[in-house]
Every structure is written in structure tokens, then in C-alpha cells.
Amino acid sequence: MAKVKVTKIKSTIEKDERQKRTMTALGLGRIGSSNELENTPAVAGMIRKVLHLVKVENI
């Protein structure tokens, strides 16, 4: 399975609680933190919901 690197680039302050929980589920805490994840359909769906808050790179 392919991997993707997800980096948080914007704050979740004043965002919906659902988006905050999605960022936590992706393993992203502070701005600038990143995580390498398997590109499964579930992860791709979570990334799509918070795409405006993250930067995504294929590995």
C-alpha cells in the first residue's frame, strides 16, 4: 500500500469539533507536525475532510 505524509499547516481553532477530532485521528497535534500513513480509503476520506488544514505528499 502506498504511503502519504500529512502535515498540519493551519490551526483548528474555531473549526468544527468533527474536524478537530479528525486531525487528532490523523495523529496531528501542533502546526508543523506531520505523520506518515498508509493510503487506505478511510485515511483518504479523513484527509479529504480536512484538506484545507493540511499539506499532503505522496511517498
List keywords for this structure.
59 residues; alpha+beta; Ribosomal Protein L30, Chain: A; 3-stranded antiparallel beta sheet; 2 helices; globular
List the helices and strands and how they pair.
Elements (H helix, E strand, L loop, with lengths): L2 E6 L8 H9 L8 E5 L2 H9 L4 E5 L1
What's the alpha carbon Rg, rounded to whole Å?
Answer: 10 Å
| Overall number of structural domains | 1
How much helical structure, as a percent, in the residues?
25-40%
H and E order? EHEHE
Task: Summarize the main sheet.
Answer: 3 strands, antiparallel
**Strand order across the largest sheet:** 2-1-3
CATH class assignment: Alpha Beta
Q: Would you identify the CATH H-level superfamily?
A: Ribosomal protein L30/L7
What overall geometry do the principal axes of the alpha carbons give?
Answer: globular
Task: Describe the structure in your own words.
With 59 residues, this protein is α+β, with helices and mostly antiparallel strands. It has a single domain, classed as Ribosomal protein L30/L7 (Ribosomal Protein L30, Chain: A), CATH 3.30.1390.20. Helices cover 31% and strands 27% of the residues. The protein contains two helices and three strands, in the order βαβαβ. The longest helix is centred in the middle third of the chain and has 9 residues, at 17-25. The protein is globular, with a radius of gyration of 10 Å.
Structure summary:
The protein is α+β, with helices and mostly antiparallel strands and 59 residues long. The protein contains two helices and three strands, in the order βαβαβ.
